[in-house]
């Protein structure tokens, strides 16, 4: 899904299975469906009713797990995680689930999101002598559980969740229970489903960041875990409680723009539908006389489809993506212009030559990749290139679980639309309006339920965690 360059980076994916004889295997399959949300590490922790075992390693889900490694995590309930680092370095020690033995027993936890008060809490713990084994903000939750005065794990977890701020969709497993919780603003998605049991058997419960994970394991989507809700699965059955009252909603609208797969329901809404609506809306707001509509694959495809339908122009795949590009590639000593982009995308000369093109993409972060794509298409003879972006200009970094460059590296933070157009060398450039984006995501015009901070610079939490933003020199080049 991710095109992997000049984009906000995907966050993490979590999955959990309760009460199934092949819990770890289903987790593995669920993680496979969520691979687009994080490609750096993968892990599973499972309980066999007595103890918790975990296995995690750097790499893709299919690299990390096989019959042998899956056999190391037996049990009827399991949690899984696929990671792209947003907080903490990318190293095995930060891979999740994180497993600890504390005064309340053995606990494994996995988290998607970013805690905005993590640095502050960690400093306080460290001042009092606590020792952390990772750099991940998720570990804070374990320390809060250990130090809670509550005696039971569900109460201690609810107590811990009340003390953290920011974005979290998390799953946790103990010897006897499986938990799922979502922050009161509902930043990141978390869906709950059911796998029908074989005759005479109980249904199993499935929880995942995106519903596309359910399809692969035969789970039926039931509902989202609600903001502020803690779901507790155990011998008592499946129970729901609220650790905090739900706050003003701040569902991440960028999940619909870019992160999530079109075959998922996110915040109860089909991503295919919202993304197509973005394309319709974009064509209504910014029509242009042209011959063809070309998407930047893969994430620009659905919005381009909407643009083409609304404008009546034919959709043509004028850029072909190579899906098999690894992390590093050896460049020939004689430098090839735009080598990095050419490795991943190649223009189709026969479709572009002499044509006026509407080029649809889902976002512009630094602008350097868009500039190279426009240049490549021109060198193939495109007569005109009109760039249309299916979201507003990205002007501010995210503090809620999405890896973004600093503000000064975001081209739209310092340049006007006309200046960006000039920089990327397009004949025209338009972004979808914020109102248009909200309408495409079926938002309430009177009171938004979405976080749109990266387009407005206005944040829904009282404070943000500036420690999370990485120094400029560590931001990967386009
Ligand atoms: Fe999503 Fe942007 Fe809000 Fe981050 S700032 S949660 S990417 S909408």
Description:
The protein has 17 helices and 23 strands. It has two domains: 13-247, 4-Layer Sandwich (Glutamine Phosphoribosylpyrophosphate, subunit 1, domain 1), CATH 3.60.20; 275-323 and 337-443, Rossmann fold (3-Layer(aba) Sandwich). The relative contact order is 0.12. The chain is globular and about 70 Å long. The strands form six sheets. It has a seven-stranded antiparallel beta sheet. It is of the alpha+beta class and 478 residues long. The chain has helices at 23-33, 61-64, 67-70, 118-127, 139-147, 153-163, 212-217, 254-259, 271-285, 301-311, 339-344, 349-352, 368-379, 411-414, 417-424, 434-440, 453-456, and strands at 12-18, 41-47, 52-58, 77-83, 98-102, 105-115, 166-173, 178-182, 191-195, 204-208, 220-224, 229-234, 237-242, 251-252, 265-266, 269-270, 292-295, 319-321, 345-347, 356-361, 384-389, 428-431, 450-451. Strand 2 and strand 3 (52-58) form a beta hairpin. Mean pLDDT is 91; it is low at 469-478. Bound molecules: iron/sulfur cluster (SF4). Residues 187, 252-254, 398, 400, 402, 451-454 line the site of iron/sulfur cluster.
């Amino acid at each position: 899904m991710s095109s992997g360059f000049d984009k906000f980076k995907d966050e993490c994916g979590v999955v959990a299975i309760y009460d199934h004889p092949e819990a770890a295997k289903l987790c593995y399959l669920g993680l496979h469906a969520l691979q687009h949300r994080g490609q750096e590490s993968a892990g599973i922790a499972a309980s066999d009713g007595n103890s918790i075992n975990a296995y995690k390693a750097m790499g893709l889900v299919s690299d990390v797990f096989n019959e042998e490694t899956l056999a190391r995590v037996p049990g009827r309930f399991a949690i899984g995680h696929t990671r792209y680092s947003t907080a903490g370095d990318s190293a095995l020690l930060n891979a999740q689930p994180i497993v600890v033995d504390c005064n309340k027993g053995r606990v494994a936890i996995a988290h998607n999101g970013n805690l905005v008060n993590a640095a502050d809490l960690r400093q306080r713990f460290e001042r009092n002598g606590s020792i952390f084994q990772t750099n991940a903000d998720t570990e804070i939750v374990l320390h809060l559980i250990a130090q809670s005065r509550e005696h039971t794990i569900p109460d201690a977890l609810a107590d811990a969740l009340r003390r953290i701020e920011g974005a979290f969709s998390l799953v946790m497993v103990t010897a006897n229970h499986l938990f799922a919780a979502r922050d009161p603003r509902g930043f990141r998605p978390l869906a709950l489903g059911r796998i029908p049991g074989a005759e005479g058997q109980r249904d199993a419960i499935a929880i995942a960041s995106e519903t596309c994970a359910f399809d692969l394991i035969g789970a039926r989507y039931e509902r989202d875990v609600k903001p502020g809700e803690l779901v507790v699965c155990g011998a008592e059955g499946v129970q729901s409680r609220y650790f905090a009252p739900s706050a003003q909603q701040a569902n991440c609208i960028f999940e619909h723009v870019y992160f999530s797969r079109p075959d998922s329901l996110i915040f109860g809404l089909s991503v295919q539908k919202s993304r197509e609506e973005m394309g319709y809306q974009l064509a209504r707001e910014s029509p242009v006389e042209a011959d063809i509509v070309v998407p930047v694959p893969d994430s620009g495809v659905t919005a381009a489809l909407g643009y083409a339908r609304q404008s009546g122009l034919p959709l043509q795949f004028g850029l072909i993506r190579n899906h098999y590009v690894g992390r590093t590639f050896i460049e020939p000593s004689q430098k090839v212009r735009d080598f990095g982009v050419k490795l991943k995308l190649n223009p189709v000369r026969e479709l572009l030559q002499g044509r006026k093109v509407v080029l649809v993409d889902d976002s512009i972060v630094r602008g350097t990749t868009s500039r190279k794509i426009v240049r490549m298409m021109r060198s193939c003879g495109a007569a005109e290139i009109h760039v249309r972006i299916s979201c507003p200009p990205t002007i501010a970094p995210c503090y809620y679980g999405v890896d973004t460059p600093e503000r000064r590296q975001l081209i739209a933070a310092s340049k006007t639309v006309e200046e960006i157009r000039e920089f990327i060398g397009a004949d025209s450039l338009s972004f979808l309006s914020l109102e248009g984006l909200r309408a495409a995501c079926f938002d309430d015009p009177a009171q938004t339920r979405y976080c749109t901070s990266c387009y407005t610079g206005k944040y829904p939490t009282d404070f943000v965690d500036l420690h999370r933003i990485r120094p400029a020199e560590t931001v990967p080049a386009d």
